[in-house]
Design brief:
The complex is a heterodimer of chains A (about 220) and B (about 220). Chain A has about 220 residues and is α/β, with parallel strands linked by helices. Helices cover about 30% and strands about 25% of the residues of chain A. The chains are: A alpha/beta (about 220), B mainly alpha (about 220).
C-alpha cells in the first residue's frame, strides 16, 4: 500500500509505512499504513488478538516492529524515536499507576515523566475527571473505573500532540465516557490528534472517530 | 519536579507505606550475621578470622534478596511502560531507581554496622573501614544489580537467573570489601582495597544506568 500523497503543506502527524508485526511466528499484520492527521481521532478496530494493542505499543516504542517504520510530521523515524516520545501521551491497559499511592501522588509522578506541562494542575485535572474528592485516598481502595479516570487525568496535565489510548473507555460509566468525549473534542479542536482502540463501537457526540480496521492475516 | 526527584520520592514513599517489606533485607542481614557466632563459635579468635567475610556475605545476600523488587512491581502495574515512553532520558530514571533502592536497602545496613561490629567482636578501630566499605560497596551492588533485574524483569521466574547473572559481578566487591575489613581488623592499612572499591562504585554508577536502560527496552519488547 502506498501512502496517499498529501497536497496540503502540512504532512500528517503520524503515518506508518509498511509496518508489520510478528508475535511468535504468527504474523499479526503487515504492510500496515495508518495515517493520523492533526485534528482527528482514529479508532483502531479489529477482533481480539488482531494486534491493536501491539500497534499502539509499537508506535510508542515499547516494542520494535518486525518491519517498516513511522513517518512523524513528515520525517522518517524508527517507532518510539525521541521526537515521537516527546509529543505522545500513552495511556495503556495497565494504567501505570501505583496502587499504594494516591491519585495525586500518581499524577505528580506522571507529570514529572511527561513531555511538557499544559499548565493544568494535578488537582484541576483530577477534578475534571470527577475524582477530585478522592485524590488523597490510596488507589488500591478505588474502583476500576476510578483508577481509569486517574490514568486518563494525565492527558490533561501533560501536553502532547498525539494521544495514544488503549481501550480508554474500559470500566468507565456513561459520565466518564462523556468526560473523555469532551476531552477528545477539545484536544482535536486545539490541533491535537488521538489514536484509540476499542473492540466495541463507541458513540461519541463530540468527535467522530475514523475507523481503521486491522485484520489478522490467515 | 524533575523526573529524577519524582522517582526517588515516589519509591521512598512506597517504601514507607510497605515498611515491613522494605525492612526485610535489613532483618535478613541482622539475622544471618547474629546467627554465625551462635552456629560456629563465639570464640574471639575464630570470629576475628571470619567476621569481615560474614558481614559482607550478609550484606551481599541482603541486597540480592531485595533486588527483584527494583523493577518488578513497576513492570506489573505498568509504571515501567510510563518510564519507557517518557521523553526523559531512561538512564537517568534508572539512576533514580538505583539511588532509591540503595537508600531503602543499603543505607540501613550502614546504620546497623556498628551493632554488627560489636556482635562479631570486630576491633573498634576497624569500624570506620567497615563503614567505608559498605558506603562504597552497597551502592555498587545496587547499581550492578539493576542490570540483572532489568534483563530478567519480563521473565516469570527470573529470580534464579538473576542470582546467576549478578553474583559473578558481585564477587570483586565482596573480595575487596572483606579484605579491607580484615586488613583494618589486623591493624593494617586498607586504603588500597578501598580505592579499588571506589573505582568499582564509580564504574558501576557510570555504566549500569545505561546498560540497565538498554536491558529494560529489550525486556519490555
Amino acid at each position: 500500500m502506498q501512502p496517499k500523497e498529501h497536497d496540503s503543506a502540512s504532512p500528517p502527524l503520524l503515518e506508518t509505512v509498511n509496518l508489520s508485526c510478528l508475535r511468535g511466528d504468527r504474523l499479526l499484520f503487515e504492510d500496515l499504513a495508518v495515517q493520523v492527521t492533526a485534528g482527528e481521532v482514529v479508532q483502531i478496530h479489529g477482533p481480539n488478538g488482531s494486534g491493536k494493542t501491539t500497534l499502539l505499543r509499537i508506535l510508542c516504542g515499547l516494542q520494535p516492529p518486525a518491519g517498516g517504520y513511522v513517518r512523524w510530521r513528515g520525517r522518517d523515524v524508527p517507532p518510539g524515536a525521541p521526537e515521537i516520545r516527546a509529543d505522545v501521551q500513552y495511556v495503556g491497559h495497565a494504567g501505570g499507576a501505583k496502587l499504594d499511592l494516591t491519585p495525586r501522588e500518581n499524577l505528580d509522578v506522571a507529570m514529572a515523566l511527561g513531555a511538557r506541562s499544559t499548565g493544568t494542575t494535578a488537582g484541576a485535572a483530577l477534578a475534571r475527571l470527577g475524582v477530585g474528592r478522592i485524590r488523597d485516598v490510596p488507589l488500591r481502595t478505588l474502583s476500576a473505573g476510578q483508577r481509569q479516570r486517574v490514568a486518563l487525568a494525565r492527558l490533561l496535565t501533560c501536553g502532547a500532540a498525539l494521544w495514544v489510548l488503549d481501550e480508554p473507555f474500559t470500566a468507565l460509566d456513561t459520565s466518564g465516557v462523556a468526560i473523555v468525549d469532551a476531552m477528545l473534542r477539545e484536544h482535536t479542536e486545539a490541533g491535537g490528534a488521538a489514536m484509540l482502540t476499542s473492540h466495541h463501537p463507541v458513540t461519541l457526540s463530540g468527535v467522530t472517530p475514523r475507523l481503521v480496521r486491522i485484520d489478522t492475516k490467515t | 519536579m524533575s523526573a529524577f526527584a519524582a522517582i526517588v520520592r515516589r519509591d521512598l514513599i512506597l517504601a514507607v507505606r510497605h515498611r515491613a517489606e522494605a525492612a526485610n533485607p535489613l532483618l535478613f542481614f541482622l539475622v544471618v550475621v547474629s546467627l554465625v557466632p551462635l552456629g560456629l563459635s563465639p570464640r574471639r579468635e575464630v570470629l576475628a578470622l571470619i567476621a569481615p567475610g560474614v558481614v559482607w556475605i550478609g550484606a551481599l545476600l541482603a541486597t540480592l534478596l531485595s533486588l527483584e523488587r527494583m523493577f518488578r512491581t513497576d513492570f506489573e502495574d505498568g509504571s515501567l511502560e510510563l518510564m519507557l515512553v517518557s521523553p526523559r532520558p531512561l538512564p537517568l530514571i534508572v539512576l533514580a531507581k538505583i539511588l532509591a533502592h540503595w537508600l531503602v536497602t543499603g543505607l540501613p545496613l550502614l546504620a546497623a554496622a556498628p551493632l554488627i561490629a560489636l556482635l562479631l567482636g570486630l576491633p573498634a578501630g576497624s569500624l570506620p573501614v567497615l563503614l567505608a566499605t559498605l558506603a562504597l560497596g552497597t551502592p555498587a551492588l545496587s547499581a550492578v544489580g539493576s542490570i540483572g533485574v532489568a534483563l530478567t524483569v519480563g521473565l516469570r521466574r527470573g529470580g534464579m537467573l538473576l542470582s546467576l547473572l549478578v553474583l559473578p559481578l558481585y564477587v570483586p566487591v565482596l573480595v575487596f570489601a572483606a579484605s579491607a575489613v580484615a586488613a583494618a581488623a589486623d591493624g593494617l592499612p586498607a586504603s588500597g582495597q578501598l580505592y579499588v572499591l571506589g573505582a568499582l562504585a564509580a564504574l558501576s554508577f557510570s555504566l549500569a544506568p545505561a546498560a540497565a536502560a538498554a536491558a529494560l527496552r529489550i525486556s519490555m519488547s
